Amino acid sequence: MANSERPSLFAAIALLSLLAACSSRPVHDSGPGPGARTPSSLPGDAVPRKEPRSRYGNGPYYEVFGETYKVLDTNYGYQERGVASWYGKKFHGRMTSSQEPYDMHEMTAAHKTLPLPSYVRVRNLRNNQSIVVRVNDRGPFVDNRLIDLSYAAAMRLDMVRDGTSLVEVTAISFDVPPTGTRHVNMTLPRPTSTLDPEDDIFVQVGAFGEVGNARRRYALLRDRGIGPLKVYQDKRTSTTLYRVRIGPIADVVEYDSVVEKLHRMGITDTHLVTE
After folding, report:
1. How many CB atoms lie within 10 A of CB 150?
2. What digits encode the pLDDT tens for the residues 244-275?
3. How many helices (H) and strands (E) does the chain have?
4. pTM over 0.90
5. Where do the domains of the chain lie, and which CATH numbers do they carry?
6. Which of 68, 230, 234, 273 shows its CA 20 to 30 Å from the CA of 137?
């Protein structure tokens, strides 16, 4: 474990379980094969409820493939956009990081840093379909992936065939807001934003108070052959922000390619946005 020179047997067993559950997970998995048990219909959303933290998989630190991850102290206010993948038959019945058997027919998910268990709403940015899942596992330990969904959850989001999708993940929290944070009731799972079918998806690579800084970022990306580019003038804030964006982004393949190019330039602070 990251913070101990002599990990306890308990910690070692927990880490081995984590690795068994997640480390060799492929980007693409398989659903139920011919003759396999399948549900007569897809399950409904997971029903959020306040639960104690699992004794397993909650760190506060753990290491996989030489990289150390810190488990979040709270899931309150968590929202992020990125790439969802899914896992299925290969891991069906194995123990998750929280030491619960993985059931590919249940509405569950794996996440690298959210406390276990957590409930999140996952929204497919391509079709605006959304689901609620219970996070009880760690992963996906693949570059540029945010969340790993169960087979059933992926079916509900209509992303099994493609294997991945661009999504928005929003925590449904029962935690007490941190001191100084305005209380917002997050116990009711509802979409945090809407998506018009005609909306486009962009990678935002900077928000600047000075238009000159935005133009310099724009020119740097243009000279590296990255595009199409635009500078979006955002007047909704107290001071105008100039947001540099790449896109529209067609799919996960294009998103991965753009992010890889940006990382080679040393630009790692990126966000998925819609217009």
Report:
1. 28
2. 999 999 999 999 999 999 999 999 999 999 88
3. 4, 12
4. no
5. 9-172 (2.40.40.10), 201-274 (3.30.70.1070)
6. 273
